[in-house]
């Protein structure tokens, strides 16, 4: 994955031009390259066609090039749902532990109401956290792994979307200058 692989095996029924990864832009900083990749994905370029490749590594062999391959993005609704469910489970766990100690200290207390109240608090806390995460840039909206530091980061787009990707990045640059 990553580099311009025109010599790769053709896939039957898929035009050759849609299998070639083309370099769209180079960046000096990894975060700038990932920002460009995020922008392309949010602009409609399929996530599985966008790669960020580090090059000019301080290594002896070229086989150690790291590749950050976008595999999709996390939808804000999914993040909120997961944090709400997690908050409810954590609330249930804390409620059950607390009910054990409360039952020993004050046996007359309604334990179901205690556990239910703590579950509700955990659910609300999960919702608030999910909304905060989904609205901010705290989550990576793509799945990627990098093990080495490169001097230059290239954004590659596979297939016929490379021309559109270049156009989108030029438009983004003009909008940022204004």
Describe the protein's architecture and organization.
The protein is of the alpha+beta class. It folds into two domains: 16-72 and 141-177, 2-Layer Sandwich (Alpha-Beta Plaits); 76-135. Helices cover 47% and strands 13% of the residues. Strands 1-4-2-3 form a four-stranded antiparallel beta sheet, covered by helices on one side. The chain starts with 20 loop residues before the first strand and ends with a helix.
Rg is 24 Å
- What's the overall average pLDDT, rounded? 76
Estimate the strand proportion.
5-15%
| Run of helices and strands | EHEEHHEH
The DSSP helix count reads 4
The helix content, as a percent range, equals 40-55%
> How many strands, what sense, and barrel or not for the largest sheet?
4 strands, antiparallel
The appropriate CATH architecture of the largest domain is: 2-Layer Sandwich
Give the class-level CATH name of the largest domain.
Alpha Beta
Overall number of strands:
4
| CATH-derived topology of the largest domain | Alpha-Beta Plaits
Strand order of the largest sheet: 1-4-2-3
Shape: elongated
Q: How many domains comprise the coordinates? A: 2
Terminal CA distance: 36 Å
Name the structural class: alpha+beta
Poorly predicted spans: 1-11
């Amino acid at each position: 994955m990553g580099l311009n692989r025109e010599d790769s095996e053709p896939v039957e029924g898929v035009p050759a031009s849609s299998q070639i990864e083309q370099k769209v832009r180079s960046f000096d900083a990894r975060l700038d390259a990932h920002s460009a990749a995020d922008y392309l994905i949010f602009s409609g370029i399929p996530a599985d066609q966008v790669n960020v490749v580090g090059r000019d590594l301080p290594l002896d062999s070229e086989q150690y090039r790291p590749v950050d391959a976008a595999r999709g993005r996390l939808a804000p609704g999914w993040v909120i749902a997961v944090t709400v469910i997690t908050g409810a489970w954590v609330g249930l766990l804390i409620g059950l532990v607390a009910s054990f100690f409360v039952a020993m200290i004050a046996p007359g207390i309604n334990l179901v109401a205690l556990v239910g109240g703590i579950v509700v608090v955990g659910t609300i806390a999960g919702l608030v956290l999910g909304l905060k995460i989904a609205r901010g840039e705290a989550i990576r909206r793509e799945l990627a792994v990098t093990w080495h530091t490169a001097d230059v980061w290239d954004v590659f787009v596979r297939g016929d979307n490379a021309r559109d990707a270049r156009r989108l990045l030029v438009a983004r640059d003009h909008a940022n200058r204004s």
